[in-house]
């Protein structure tokens, strides 16, 4: 879509001078002003922009926090409390950063679910999808290490449990764990390297985001119909159409974000993290941050040995497998139709999958005992079945609904059906509601 | 689509019901497995809600309770005397308050440690010289520090309450817990329950059926000079509120800033929405 013909014509002398030497204004113009986007994008497509501002917000607040934070087990906890009590607006910075991590994940989960619903991973967007999965993986590493830095009880014990996973790997497991920890247990070397990596990884995320956006601008955006852009009438210019819609999405997202920062800043955290880390006192229930809970439930669902694989290694493999399977989704889905709008059965299984993920998340917060284990096993089974069985099989046997010939046709059909003047709220995302 | 949503709701309901059953199984009055035995009582706090503010008189009373009762065992390492001005004290009052404490300072130019009266820049002095001494004097477990206790304790709200909490802005788990614990010593343990020697039954304790701390408060223990009732209930309320302040001294500032931010963002969103409609008016989409 964006290849070739740039329509940028500098109007000022300075603009022409720049354009001949380093055409940065041309790049910006082509990418964010003239760039054609499908005219039928709904608000689920604003999460890309939302994620970018969340990344910037996390980096900016994080850099300022790092100016006041001390990564030493003796004073890390109290240095965070200094920020909360004595640094000007320190409480705001820290609450923005801590809740920002949560909202970053809320946005990324909605973004991923959008991709799964509308088939945004399908050819030619496989690389775009995989780059997104890499960003998600980096986010998880960053989030995990960031949670260790305040050096509370959950920081310490979460780090102990999660680095302990690696010991399940045969032969090299212990070596990997000791490399991660910088010793035999979570201690000062662990905190120091986690701080260094927590500072590094967001910039790596930013780098992969550039690749992600680059790949997006080559293939162009998918859209709620899943039909490729065919003519000029299918698209509108990025500015003002997409910019204004993205901006509205961002501000509404910020309202939710601000609500948590200012009114319930500790809702998404764990009270135990306000207790300084104590290696001699294990908390009653060690739980990771909420955004890891589905994977934590999958980890603990494997309570049985499978041949030579014991339950511990099995759990770790299932957990990493749950993320790894995302990378191959473009090849697991055999359907020729992208969007779930035209795939009634896929749509049903998709929504069950969504509920399943939330259910797994809730199970992850429960102790692994009694009926919780069985429920987690059933939910884990569905999680994997959705990708490994339902996606490939459904594509072969499902009869999709009739596809419109083009985006324009779909839009005009919809507008005719809904009356001449559409109330904006209803037009925003009718595809979601089907 | 409606069918799908209905089936989703049904699935969700079945899952929730299953989960609720799972929560209730193995429940036995004499040998409970989940703590606390009772959910905390919910108190109406002046600092709750979007416009919540601390009641300064209450914080001053709470400080008095902390100083005269709790501080015998519980430190409050992260709270500096200077911050007590938040409670409505003048600079001179804070200076006088700090001076009542003795601070070990040094070394001086001769290399000796020396003692001096506290300054506003000093922090509350701990009752024990170190963790080991605190543990040794208290049956092996050091009494927890109080600087953050109101944020470091929270009883799980359970499904679906934790979802409603988002809308009701319930964030007072900590003070509710402290209040409930302090007023929860009255109940008798159920028949058949064994209480370990030297511990005290309290169904609101998060860590088990009983705790080492004896009931710390009794009526008329602390003299209030503002006419507030001198009861365990009032002491517990006041000290819980004070501990919330100690844990979250910028709460008022946070909520005040939050209101401005929300008003700004909602107006901004409204304007943006109008602009967006205008821009898209002639483009079917």
TrEMBL record, chain A:
Its main location: membrane. One of its GO terms (cellular component) is respiratory chain complex III. It is found in: Membrane. It comes from Aquamicrobium defluvii. This is Cytochrome b. The keyword Cell membrane applies. Keywords: Cell membrane, Electron transport, Heme, Iron, Membrane, Metal-binding, Respiratory chain, Transmembrane, Transmembrane helix, Transport. A ubiquinone binds at residue 217. The main subunits of complex b-c1 are: cytochrome b, cytochrome c1 and the Rieske protein. Component of the ubiquinol-cytochrome c reductase complex (complex III or cytochrome b-c1 complex), which is a respiratory chain that generates an electrochemical potential coupled to ATP synthesis. Its cofactor is heme b; heme. Binds 2 heme groups non-covalently. Heme b b566 binds at residues 111, 212.
UniProtKB/TrEMBL annotation, chain B:
Keywords: Heme, Iron, Membrane, Metal-binding, Ribonucleoprotein, Ribosomal protein, Signal, Transmembrane, Transmembrane helix. It is found in: Membrane. Residues 1-22 form the signal peptide. One of its GO terms (cellular component) is ribosome. The keyword Transmembrane applies. Binds 1 heme c group covalently per subunit. The keyword Coiled coil does not apply. InterPro entries: Cyt_c-like_dom, Cyt_c-like_dom_sf, Cyt_c1. Residues 57-247 form the Cytochrome c domain. Its cofactor is heme c. GO terms for molecular function: electron transfer activity; heme binding; metal ion binding. This is Cytochrome c1.
């Amino acid at each position: 879509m964006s290849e070739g013909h740039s329509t940028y014509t500098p109007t000022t002398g300075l603009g022409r001078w720049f354009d001949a030497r380093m055409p940065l204004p041309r790049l910006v113009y082509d990418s964010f002003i003239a760039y054609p986007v499908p005219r039928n994008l709904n608000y689920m497509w604003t999460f890309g922009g939302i994620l970018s501002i969340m990344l910037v917000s996390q980096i900016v607040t994080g850099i300022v926090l790092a100016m006041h934070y001390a990564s030493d087990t003796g004073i890390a906890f109290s240095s965070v409390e200094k920020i909360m009590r004595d640094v000007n607006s320190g409480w705001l910075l820290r609450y923005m950063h801590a809740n920002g991590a949560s909202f970053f994940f809320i946005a990324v989960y909605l973004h991923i679910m959008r991709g799964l619903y509308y088939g945004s991973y399908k050819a030619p967007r496989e690389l775009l999808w995989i780059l997104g999965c890499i960003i998600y993986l980096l986010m998880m590493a960053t989030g995990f290490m960031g949670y260790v830095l305040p050096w509370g009880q959950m920081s310490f014990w979460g780090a102990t449990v999660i680095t302990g996973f690696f010991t399940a790997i045969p032969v090299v497991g212990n070596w990997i764990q000791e490399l991660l920890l910088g010793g035999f247990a979570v201690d000062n070397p662990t905190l120091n390297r986690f701080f260094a990596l927590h500072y590094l990884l967001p910039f790596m995320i930013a780098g992969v985001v550039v690749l992600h956006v680059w790949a997006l601008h080559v293939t162009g955006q998918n859209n709620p119909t899943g039909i490729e852009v065919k003519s000029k009438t299918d698209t509108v210019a990025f500015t003002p159409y997409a910019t204004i819609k993205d901006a509205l999405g961002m501000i509404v997202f910020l309202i939710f974000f601000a609500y948590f920062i200012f009114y319930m800043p500790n809702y998404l955290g764990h009270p135990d993290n306000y207790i300084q880390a104590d290696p001699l006192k294990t908390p009653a229930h060690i739980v990771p941050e909420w955004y890891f809970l589905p994977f934590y439930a999958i980890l603990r669902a494997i309570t049985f040995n499978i041949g030579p694989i014991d339950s511990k290694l099995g759990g770790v493999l299932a957990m990493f497998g749950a993320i790894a399977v995302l990378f191959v989704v473009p090849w697991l889905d055999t359907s020729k139709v992208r969007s779930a709008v035209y795939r009634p059965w896929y749509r049903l299984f998709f929504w069950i999958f969504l509920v399943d993920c939330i259910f797994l998340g809730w199970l992850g917060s429960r102790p692994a005992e009694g009926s919780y284990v069985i429920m987690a096993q059933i939910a884990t089974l569905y999680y994997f079945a959705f990708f490994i069985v339902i996606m490939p099989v459904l594509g072969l046997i499902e009869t999709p609904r009739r596809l419109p010939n083009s985006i324009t046709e779909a839009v005009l059909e919809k507008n005719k059906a809904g009356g001449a003047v559409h109330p904006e709220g209803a037009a925003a995302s009718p595809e979601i509601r089907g | 689509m409606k069918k799908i949503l209905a089936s989703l709701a049904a699935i969700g309901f079945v899952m929730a019901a299953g989960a609720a059953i799972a929560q209730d199984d193995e429940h036995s009055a004499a040998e409970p497995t989940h703590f606390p035995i009772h959910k905390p009582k919910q108190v109406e706090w002046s600092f709750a809600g979007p416009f919540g503010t601390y009641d300064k008189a209450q914080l001053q009373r709470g400080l008095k309770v902390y100083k005269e009762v709790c501080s015998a065992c519980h430190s409050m390492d992260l709270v500096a005397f200077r911050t007590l001005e938040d409670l409505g004290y003048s600079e001179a009052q804070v200076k006088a308050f700090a001076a009542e404490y003795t601070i070990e300072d040094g070394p001086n130019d001769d290399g000796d440690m020396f003692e001096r009266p506290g300054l506003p820049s000093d922090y509350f002095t701990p009752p024990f010289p170190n963790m080991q001494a605190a543990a040794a004097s208290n049956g092996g477990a050091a009494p927890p520090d109080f600087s953050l206790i109101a944020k470091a304790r929270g009883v799980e709200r359970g499904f679906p309450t934790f979802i409603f909490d988002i809308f009701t802005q319930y964030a007072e788990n900590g003070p509710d817990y402290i209040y409930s614990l302090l007023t929860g010593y009255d109940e008798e343990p159920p028949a058949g329950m064994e209480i370990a020697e030297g511990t005290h039954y309290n169904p609101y304790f998060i860590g088990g059926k009983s705790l080492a701390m004896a009931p710390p408060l009794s009526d008329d223990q602390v003299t209030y000079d503002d006419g507030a009732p001198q009861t365990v209930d009032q002491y517990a309320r006041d000290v819980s509120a004070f501990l919330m302040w100690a844990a979250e001294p910028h709460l008022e500032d946070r909520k005040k800033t939050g209101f401005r931010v929300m008003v700004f963002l909602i107006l901004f969103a409204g304007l943006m929405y109008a602009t967006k409609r205008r821009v898209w008016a002639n483009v079917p989409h």
